[in-house]
Write the structure tokens for this entry.
Amino acid sequence: MNQTETQSIAEVPTWAGGRSPLAVDKKKLGMWLFLLSDSITFTCLLVGYSYVRIASPNWPRPFEFYPAIVKATLMTGILLTSSLTMVLAVHAAHKGKRSTTVKYILFTILGGVLFDIIHISEWVNLIVHEHVTPFSNPWGSPLLGGAFFGLTGLHMLHVTIGVIYLGVIAWGFGRNKFSSTDVEVSGLYWHFVDLVWMFIFPLVYLINVSPK
Amino acid sequence: MSAKEEAIEHQAAGSTKLFLWVWFGLLILTGVETLMAYEDWALLIMLTILMGLSLVKSAYILSYFMHLRFEKLGLFLMTIPVFVFLICMMLLVLYPDSVRLIHMRAL
């Protein structure tokens, strides 16, 4: 009888082999690693923007209470609520409640779509009515447009991809093609999108509210 | 309890009530941030407080919504040091440099 057979599970070292040391599914681990790399990408953009924001004496503060701050706060609330519905979907998936899971995922998708619609309306207002481009604006430092559209555009792209991803997961899970782990992995992505917005909202909008 | 039942219970950790409380807390913090934006404070003070609140909110999202609080320590140690490093880079290296730039312009 070899040593491992005489040892209980608790006595076998985690790194002895044959077990997952992190106790996570490989898809979940892969998503976590992707999110780490994506967070580095967003941090680079956020730091680059923040650096020029702090260092520029003529940085414009164009965001009026209405419509900019009201819309941005509403978007934050919508994204937080969609994160709640997503975590409830994951919870239901692990308990084997298929129709409840799909329902909550559809609510999450609705939140994402609403977020995109409001954000696009804001972009249209800035581009068409305020004449802001990535290279110029009528108020001050020309870096405002590039920073704003770059940051929020990349985030909006992530939201849009997330909406499509969740649609696929909802369709597949409803037909018993995907497991609860797949729902959880898609949930991680969605929460990450929400997490990034928790930094973009104060750094881009709240720091730049129009002075009284 | 079998190993499979234990795995399911681990994965389904947390309750609807807990998630609702976290969501509500995040909404409150968002409201506080928005109200604070209209205070007449210096830029760096405003930035510090807003970043601090954002870090608190992201900690709640990571812990409860992304389930990190209920995961094994190894996964926590794999992910959190990266975020800590990013925040340190922001606060200790880059922001002081941009502040120095303002002071140099003023001279």
Observations:
- DSSP finds six helices and no strands in chain A.
- Chain A touches chain B through 52 residues (CB under 8 Å).
- Confidence is low (pLDDT under 50) at residues 1-5 of chain A.
- Chain A has one domain: 26-208.
